[in-house]
Design goal:
Blueprint: H1 3-9, E1 14-18, E2 30-34, E3 37-42, E4 47-48, E5 52-56, E6 63-66, E7 85-94, E8 97-107, E9 114-122, E10 133-136, E11 143-146, E12 152-159, E13 168-177, E14 182-191, E15 200-207, E16 210-217, E17 225-231, E18 239-240, E19 247-248, E20 258-267, E21 273-280, E22 293-301, E23 307-309, E24 319-322, E25 336-337, E26 350-351, E27 360-361, E28 369-372, E29 384-389, E30 394-402, E31 410-419, E32 422-431, E33 435-444, E34 447-450, E35 456-457, E36 464-471, E37 474-481, E38 488-495, E39 513-520, E40 527-537
Antiparallel strand pairs: 1-24, 2-3, 3-5, 4-26, 5-6, 7-8, 8-9, 9-10, 11-12, 12-13, 13-14, 15-16, 16-17, 17-18, 17-19, 20-21, 21-22, 22-23, 25-40, 27-28, 28-40, 29-39, 30-36, 30-40, 31-32, 31-39, 32-33, 33-34, 33-35, 36-37, 37-38
Length: 540
C-alpha cells in the first residue's frame, strides 16, 4: 500500500487536528491509550515537578492532568546542570498498572553521561506514584515493553564514551524482573541504527507476529528523524524499513514543523494509528523560542507490514486528519491567577526542587503569592522562581509585586527565563542614592548586563505592576505604579532569540518560561508578595 492506497484511505476523514497539539516546551512524547482515554507524557528536564501528563478523548483536544514525580524521593535535581534532569519519559500500562520510565541526567557534557534510569508505578494515572526502582545508567531514553507472554523488557540507547567509538552505540535490550524489582539476564545490543546515526529514543511494539522498534535518529535538531525496524524475535536481528525514515523535516526549510522525530505510536479503539512526535517551530528560520513541542501524524500500515505517513512522504503536516472519535472539548486556562486557591495552579513550575512553604507560600500573605529571596538566577540549587511555559509566539503577561528592598542584593520581579545562562529580568531593587528602583537585567550566553544605567527611581513604598509583551522574536517591558492610569514602557525592545535551544552551538533542550522571582543575598530572607499573575495568549 503506497500512494494510491493511502489516498483512498484518506477519503474517510475525522475532525482535523491542528499541530502542535501541545504547544510550548513539551518534548519527547510518549503516547498511550487505556480504553477510551489517551495520555501523553513529556520531558521536563530541570523543571519541577517531573514529567507532564496530558489527557484526551479525541486526540485533538488535550488537557494537562498532572505530574507523577512530585517528591524528592522520586526526583532530586538540586545541582543538576542546565538541560539535565528528566529526559524522555516512557508511559505504559499493563494489567491495571501504569508504568513510567524516566531518566534523571546529572551530567551530560563531555565524554560521560551520568544518566540514571528509574521506574515508578501507579494504579491510577492521577497517582499516587511509587518511589522509584533504579534500573541502570548505561544510556538514556529507556522504555518498558510488556510482551504478550507476560515478560517485560527494557530498551535504552547505549552510551559508549571510549575514544574512537561512536558514542551512540545502539539500542540495548534486557529483561526486567518485576518481582525482584531489577533487570536480569544478558544485555543484548539489538539495533545499531542507520546511516542517519545518533540512534536513540527506542520504543518496542508488537503487531501481527512482528516486533517493531521505533527509534529517533539524527539528533534532536534539524536533522532529526524517526526510523522503524522489525524482527520476528524480540532479540533480533532487526531489519530497517527500506523506505526509512518514517518521519523527518530535514531538507525542507519550508515546513512549519521542523525537527520532527522522537516519536511513539498509538492505536485507537477503532483501529486507526497515530504517531506522536517531537517538533519545533523556528523564528527567522532557526530559533525555536517556545522549545520543542508535540505533534501528531496519522499513519497507515502497508500490505507488507511497514508504517507510512497517511498523507504520504516523510514530512510532517500541520493539519492532520483526525480519528473517527467524538470530539471532546476541554476547559480553557483562565488568564488570571489571583492566588486565592490553597495550592499553586498546575501550570506553575519551580527549578530543580519542589515548592515548599519555606520559600513559596500562599498562606503567609493571603490572596498573594509570597516568595522569600534565595539564590541568584544563575543558581542550580535553590532558586525562588515560579514560572510557566510560554505557549504562544504572541503573548502578554503581568503581575503586581509589593517589595521593599534595602540593599542592591535584594531583587524581585518579572522574569523571562530559558536557563541560568539566558534570561531577562524586570525587577525592583535598591540603589544607594536613588532608593527603590526598577532595573532590567539581561544575561545572554552567561554574560550579565544591566540595561538601565542609571536604574529608574520609583515610589519608595507600595505595590508596582510589571508587564511584558512578546511579539514573536521581540520583548517589551512596562510598569505602572499605584498613581498611574496608563502603562509606561521601560527599557529598549529586546530580542528573545537567545532564549532558545538554537542560540548557541552547544546543544540545549528546554524552552522559554515566564514567571516571578525573588533573590536575597544579604541573609535576611526578604520577601516579595505577588498579588496576581496574568498570562494572555494573543494573535491566535
Amino acid at each position: 500500500m503506497e500512494r494510491n492506497q493511502i489516498k483512498e484511505e484518506r477519503m474517510m476523514m475525522g475532525t482535523p487536528i491542528q499541530n502542535p497539539i501541545l504547544p510550548g516546551f513539551h518534548p519527547d512524547p510518549s503516547i498511550l491509550r487505556v480504553g477510551e482515554d489517551y495520555y501523553i507524557a513529556t520531558s521536563t528536564f530541570e523543571w519541577f515537578p517531573g514529567v507532564r501528563i496530558h489527557h484526551s478523548k479525541d486526540l485533538k483536544n488535550w488537557s494537562f492532568i498532572g505530574s507523577p514525580l512530585t517528591r524528592t524521593s522520586q526526583l532530586d535535581m538540586r545541582g543538576n546542570m542546565n538541560s539535565g534532569g528528566v529526559w524522555a519519559p516512557a508511559l505504559s500500562w499493563h494489567d491495571g498498572t501504569f508504568y513510567l520510565i524516566y531518566t534523571d541526567v546529572k551530567q551530560w557534557h563531555g565524554a560521560y553521561k551520568d544518566a540514571h534510569n528509574y521506574l515508578v508505578t501507579s494504579e491510577s494515572i492521577m497517582g499516587p506514584w511509587s518511589d522509584p526502582v533504579y534500573l541502570n545508567s548505561s544510556g538514556f531514553d529507556p522504555s518498558l515493553f510488556h510482551d504478550d507472554d507476560g515478560r517485560k523488557w527494557l530498551v535504552n540507547m547505549f552510551w559508549d564514551y571510549r575514544s574512537g567509538n561512536h558514542s551512540f552505540a545502539g539500542i540495548v535490550l534486557q529483561e526486567f524482573n518485576e518481582k525482584e524489582g531489577r533487570l536480569t539476564g544478558l544485555i543484548k545490543n539489538i539495533y545499531r541504527g542507520t546511516d542517519i546515526r545518533l540512534t536513540e529514543g527506542p520504543h518496542l511494539y508488537k503487531k501481527d507476529g512482528w516486533y517493531y522498534l521505533l527509534v529517533a535518529e539524527g539528533g534532536t535538531r534539524y536533522d532529526h528523524a524517526a526510523t522503524v525496524a522489525r524482527s520476528r524475535e524480540i532479540e533480533g536481528p532487526y531489519e530497517t524499513d527500506p523506505y526509512y525514515p518514517l518521519l523527518t523535516s530535514r531538507g525542507n526549510d519550508e515546513l512549519s514543523l521542523q525537527k520532527a522525530g522522537h516519536a511513539s505510536l498509538v492505536e485507537t479503539q477503532n483501529g486507526e494509528w497515530y504517531l506522536a512526535h517531537l517538533c519545533g517551530r523556528p523564528l527567522r528560520g532557526k530559533y525555536c523560542t517556545l522549545g520543542r513541542e508535540t505533534a501528531l501524524q496519522k499513519v497507515l500500515w502497508t500490505d507488507d507490514g511497514w508504517l507510512r505517513l497517511a498523507h504520504g512522504g516523510h514530512f510532517p503536516e500541520e493539519i492532520v486528519e483526525g480519528p473517527e472519535l467524538p470530539e471532546s472539548s476541554v476547559a480553557q486556562e483562565p488568564v488570571r491567577d489571583d492566588f486565592e486557591e490553597p495550592d499553586l495552579r498546575v501550570e506553575w513550575n519551580s527549578l530543580r526542587v519542589p515548592v515548599d512553604e519555606s520559600w513559596c507560600s500562599l498562606t503567609d500573605a493571603p490572596g498573594s503569592l509570597r516568595l522569600y529571596g534565595r539564590e541568584s538566577l544563575a543558581s542550580v540549587h535553590r532558586q525562588s522562581l515560579i514560572a510557566r511555559r510560554q505557549t504562544s509566539f504572541q503573548c502578554a503577561f503581568s503581575t503586581c509585586v509589593d517589595f521593599e528592598p534595602d540593599t542592591f542584593q535584594q531583587k524581585a520581579g518579572l522574569v523571562v527565563y530559558y536557563d541560568t545562562e539566558d534570561h531577562v529580568y524586570l525587577h525592583i531593587t535598591h540603589h544607594e542614592e536613588k532608593g527603590r528602583v526598577l532595573q532590567i537585567l539581561r544575561t545572554v550566553n552567561g554574560q550579565y548586563e544591566e540595561l538601565l544605567l542609571p536604574p529608574l527611581r520609583i515610589a519608595q513604598a507600595g505595590a508596582v505592576e510589571l508587564k511584558g509583551a512578546i511579539d514573536f522574536d521581540t520583548l517589551l517591558f512596562y510598569f505602572r505604579e499605584e498613581s498611574d492610569q496608563e502603562w509606561k514602557q521601560i527599557g529598549p525592545r529586546l530580542s528573545t532569540l537567545h532564549m532558545s535551544d538554537d542560540a548557541l552551538e552547544k546543544v540545549r533542550f528546554t524552552g522559554t518560561f515566564i514567571g516571578m522571582a525573588c533573590q536575597d543575598y544579604s541573609g535576611s530572607r526578604q520577601s516579595a508578595d505577588f498579588d496576581f499573575f496574568d498570562y494572555d495568549i494573543q494573535g491566535q
